[in-house]
Amino acid sequence: MIFDEANFSPGGDRYITVEFGNEMNLELNFMAQGLAGALREAGTKGLVETAPCFASLLVHYEPRDISYGDMVTELKSLIGSLGSTDEIELDSRLFTFETLYLDPWTKECIDDYREKLNPDKEYDPDFVARLNGLEDRHQLVRVHSSSEYWVASLGFWPGLPFLQPLDPRAMITCPKYNPPRTWTPQGAVGMGGSASSIYPVATPGGYQLFGRTPVPIWDPNKRFDAFEGDIVLFRPGDRIKFQPVTRADYDDAERKIEDGSYLYNIVEYQRFSVRNYQSWVNKLDKSERF
Amino acid sequence: MLEIVAGGLQTTVQDMGRQGGQCLGIPPSGAQDGFALRIANLLVGNSPGGPLIIRDDPGAAGLEITMAGLKLQAKTDLLVAATGADMGATLDGVPVPRWQAFMLRQGQLLAFGMATSGARAYLAVHGGIDVPLYLGSRATHVRGRFGGFNGRALQAGDILPIGQIRADSDTLAGRQLRPELVPSYGGAQEVRVVRGPEAHLFDGASETAFYATAWQLNPKSDRTGMRFIGPELGFRPGRPRYLIEEAGADPSNIVIDPGAPVGTIQVPSGVEPIVLGVDAPSVGGYARIGIVISTDMSIIGQIQPLQHAAFVQISHDDSVAALKQQEALISESSVVS
């Protein structure tokens, strides 16, 4: 549900969790990001930093500069000034990532898991397709690559995006691995619950895997200008499009990444209007699939 | 400059951590026991920085020495102070006092043994360890391979650059923390906690047990998470349908990953509460039974594997009072010469 009024709770002596609701609804994330922007602009005394989560905003403040009660009052007033969710507009960059769906590396990873941990584990793309009533793994690729994805929040690993499809016709869900995998290739694309993600580095993991991108989203050596001096690529409110490519295109992109000549495909001139988004969504027949 | 002769179990460059990264999934890092590092910096005349990640002042960077084994040699005369865990530090074989500034002369060997009480020792150097800033901090995040000295734990042969040294720094030798303020790390530790936003999901008996238990630190703990061994905690029956649908049947999973800052205590599947450390990412998917108050993250950082600790619930007002009280100690009034 979406709460009528935001819910505030103290997290220890220096954090506040502002919850807008408790369901997987993008509107809640728009509110969290809208409030983060309003706080930045207000320059509230005692504010340290904010971190949007899917349906809430974590506010870090300095309790010696502002009390919990005064911070809550300030947050309520800012939420009031935001108006309805429709009014929220957010800067939003669009990233396009070459993605090799049904790739050999995640297949190898799944095979390894089957061999060592769970022989009954169905091949992830077939499993996710079956669970969501899709024809086969090829329709999963069509459906998954049909939508832009919204960077709702980042966490678990520096720069790891928590993604939701903006097109409701691309909404699919699946459970996470149980037990989790001990390794996942860097750049693996997969999902758990309704969230998609890209693995920034090779780590253990629990998402169902069905593709891989060669494009780094984590750059501790700061080789690429796209990171603007940072080591992580994304910010909350960015959008990502997975572009299905052939193995030859994948290898070509990988070569360019290795020699440093790779050009990130980033569009920066757009603003995301919640009103425009909602009116588009309302026109769609959500039962349709690509 | 300082030359590392042996890196020990894990020694890293840390200050009070970086800020502004939480929305990008970048943890604050920094000293797990901020109090010990800040006192060490104070003793050697460095900026101690703010409490737990304050922008623009992460304080001077020093070394965080985990459990054992660091050996280093000065390439020039340096004023240093060792605080935190007792690792029986010696200077050319002669024991040196903890919580006191002393001169490390060119060529002298400073060696740390096994921790006999506490888990992390801190070494501050007048001038600070001068590695490059990343996001406003010199703190090392080992798993992410960034910050600190080449983004990693120190190894034999590393040469650490030292910042600006005042000509009269040797006059600060002998400065020490007032003896009554030196923390004791032995025995059962008490860690103060503010009730967490999802504490109501646990059944009453389990929440009571959480505060009544003498938990033991799981040796698999690190700066990302400190896990505590003890009884299994249960959840109230009647998990709402939306939670089962959205987050699955496991009662510790909450529907949407909430913010989980440093100090958050999560109990995945009711087993082994995990206190998120300074290297933890900012989101977590489990019910938050409590949050360790920021001052007591220092205590958490000093618990040895299998040592006992109890969680004590306090009010939010008391947690702020504890912070103010500790901040008042990070001052010259705590130092005697």
The chain-level structural class of chain B is alpha+beta
Tally of separate helices of chain A:
7
Strand order of the largest sheet of chain B: 13-18-16-17-15-14-19
In whole angstroms, how far apart are the ends of chain B? 26 Å
Helix content, binned percent of chain B: 10-25%
What is the correct CATH architecture of the largest domain in chain A?
A: Beta Barrel
Shape of chain B: elongated
* DSSP, total strands of chain A: 14
* Tally of separate domains of chain B: 2
Structural class of chain A: alpha+beta
In the predicted model, the low-confidence regions of chain B spanning at least 5 consecutive residues are none
Most extensive interface between two protein chains, with residue counts: A-B, 49 and 51 residues
Distance between the termini of chain A: 29 Å
Radius of gyration of chain A: 20 Å
Order of helices and strands of chain A: EEHEEHEEHHHEEEEEEHEEH
Secondary structure tally, helices of chain B: 5
Secondary structure: helix percent of chain A: 25-40%
Taking Cα atoms only, what radius of gyration of chain B do you get, to the nearest Å? 20 Å
CATH superfamily of the largest domain in chain A: Cyclophilin-like
Strand content of chain B: 25-35%
Quick structural overview:
The complex is a heterodimer of chains A (290) and B (337). Chain A is α+β, with helices and mostly antiparallel strands and 290 residues long.
Description of the molecule:
The complex is a heterodimer of chains A (290) and B (337). The radius of gyration of chain A is 20 Å and the shape is globular. Chain A folds into 2 domains: 85 residues, Gyrase A, domain 2 (2-Layer Sandwich); 191 residues, Cyclophilin (Beta Barrel). In chain A, strands 6, 7, 8, 9, 10, 11, 12 and 13 form an 8-stranded mixed beta sheet that branches. A 4-stranded antiparallel beta sheet of chain A has the order 1-2-4-3, covered by helices on one side. Chain A has a two-stranded antiparallel sheet with strand order 5-14. Chain A has 7 helices and 14 strands. Chain A has 290 residues and is of the alpha+beta class. In chain A, helix 1 packs across helix 2. With 337 residues, chain B is an alpha+beta fold. Chain B folds into 2 domains: 184 residues, no CATH class; 141 residues, Cyclophilin, CATH 2.40.100. Helices cover 13% and strands 26% of the residues of chain B. Chain B contains 5 helices and 20 strands. In chain B, the strands form 4 sheets. Chain B has a 7-stranded mixed β-barrel with strand order 13-18-16-17-15-14-19. Chain B has a 6-stranded antiparallel beta sheet with strand order 7-6-9-4-1-11, with no helix packed on it. Chain B has a 5-stranded antiparallel beta sheet with strand order 2-3-10-5-8, with helices on one face. The mean pLDDT of chain B is 92. Classes of the chains: A alpha+beta (290), B alpha+beta (337). Chains A and B meet through strand 1, strand 2, strand 3 and strand 4 of A and helix 3, strand 18 and helix 5 of B.
